[in-house]
Fold these 3 entries.
Entry 1:
Amino acid sequence: MKSSGLIIKAFAVFAKDLRLELRTKYAVNTILMFGVTSLAVVSFSLGQSGLPTKLLAALFWIVMFFSAMAALAQAFTREEEAGTALALRLTAEPNSVYLGKLFFNLTLLSTLAAVITPLFFIFTDAPTESILPFILVLGLGVLALCAATTLVAAIIAKAAVKGALFAVLSFPILLLPLMMLVGASDKILLGSGMGAVAAPLQGLVAYTVVMITASLLLFGFVWKE
């Protein structure tokens, strides 16, 4: 019963943020504009053919990383700027707030991925037969990025220079999963089977589980400060 109540409250937090985002479209416009522009400019600058797969994989995840840095911090800073953070602290348990914000960030980054991925295959010479296994890696990557950055967004919500601080704190935490994602994406684009990326995928799953568990344990202390 307690876990079901937690999920219901988390969904309420998610629904509130989603309704606000659908009215303003601030975060989704920011993340899509940044992602699409970055991908187009970099891919046309480097050329569309003859690029090694490792460079293509790095290009894709660099765009995803900086797009995430552009918008994912808004989940908590918007609460502080609007003055609704206190009301949220009084009406929802910390873990419900964390899960609701995590679901919201997942929705934002998944929207970006749904737009960026087909454009990535159009703008570059990445083999289209790699799309399905690439999507599996992408899904784990999106979850790992959101799992690591949601707690960081809560930590920097009251800081004066939020955007810069968010990127500075997030990068060391995300360095390991980004390396695994680039390596796995490189092998997928080379045409290697799923067996070749089993180790990095298992590492991503383990990383995500650890980050979500640690965030649930620590979020209460961060949120109440």
Entry 2:
Amino acid sequence: MNHITRRLLAGGLLCAASFALSAQQPGPPKVLRIFREDIKEGKGSAHEKVETRWAQTMARLKYPANSLALTSMSGTNQAWFLEGHDSFASIGETEAFFNKPAYRAEIDALDAQDAELRASSRQWIAAFRNDLSYRMEQLMESIPKARYVNVLIFRIHQGRDQEFADLAKTAIAALGKSGSDQPVAVYQVVSGAPNGMYLLFEPSASLKTLDDAPARGEAMMNAMGDAGSKRFVKSVGETVASEEVLLFTINPKMSYPPKEVAAGDPNFWTPKAAKPAAKPANKPPATN
């Protein structure tokens, strides 16, 4: 089994032909604006300090969109900021928020500091594919305790959307039959990248999920049966153009999480500053 197929099985690749925002129960944001920043070598600590001030400023000004900050553990030195929205219109509202004259000078100063630490940056806008995601109720419950996010970036060949949808149906059925406990949120990039780009987010509380990935993949393959797994492998090779896997750690200092997430583990998301040690009381002068 090639590497792409194994990751499809372990993560549960679930994609379809056409893009549509479907009605859904409360869950992941319907739209993500993703800010990817490539950090200069040796500037990680300085960048964290500036981004922490960004998060503090957003909280103080009551910025209308929450965000989750991820810093890379593999690949190049990157930071991703996942900004959640209920709609595309919401993105326009947040842009207008920071353009208010009362905030402009402060925001421009922070952006200038941040720019000194970035090698490059880019933005993507992606739509949540509830129909392609797995165990969203479990995912939402796990976010407060999550410490890592494995991100799989898939690009499909032009004109292979129907084949991709067929892969999704096979993967969904096998994922459920095998009883995989790893939730996967799927987003389709709709702006900022070539067509056919999908992001799979696998949050976890421990890196043990990566140790267990091969066993989950084997279980899914077995669930497909011999003939089905062979068809699946062949279709993957004809449909998927490329794959990139990046492992991130969640950075609470740089995040601006929803209140519900912060309340789920306040010691991680909003730790209280340590109180300074009390000074010893002065001893009275000795008397003869």
Entry 3:
Amino acid sequence: MQKEKVTPARPVRKPRADAERNRERILEVAKEVFTRDGAAASLDDIARRSGIGNATLYRHFPTRDDLIEAVYRSEVEKLAAAEHRFAAAMPPLAALRAWMLLLIDHISAKKLILPAMDTVAGGSMRLIESSRSLIHTAFLASVHRAIASGDLRSDTEPNDFVRALVGIFHTTAQPGWEPSARRIVDILIAGSRSAPKQTSARPRTRQK
């Protein structure tokens, strides 16, 4: 009598959704801790506050540099995703303004974790440069959409918007830079808006 083959049971794997939730929780807590403690932030503290063991933390992020880079990259990806979300929910010009203001918030938040970013190999500039294209692409897409809708003049140069805000971001060490940057957003938009269409008056009919 031929013996029936028994298929070995497959090991039960933890759902990927749980792993992703753990990863997102680690990034959320790590951002808070790096903001508070800067270069002195403790990975043990991050693991404890995330409600996970150290092994789980290191499984997701083998080194401290990996975690810091992931925190910054995650914030950039959220910023880029917001451009798509605003575009789907708002008129083009309102979406552009909302996203530019969010970009200012992003730069402000980046300043808070900059001391931690400066500790990674290559320094904070390496992290910023590696994500620059993602922000630049989102920025240009938002401006182009406002031009295509007719809200901005057809001769508007999208990179002028980029250069103007980048110039402001070089002044973040000075007090009052953030309110100034928000005013610049409205100045840029107002100066680039299309002129309102003039309705031609109907010629008067001569009475006989």
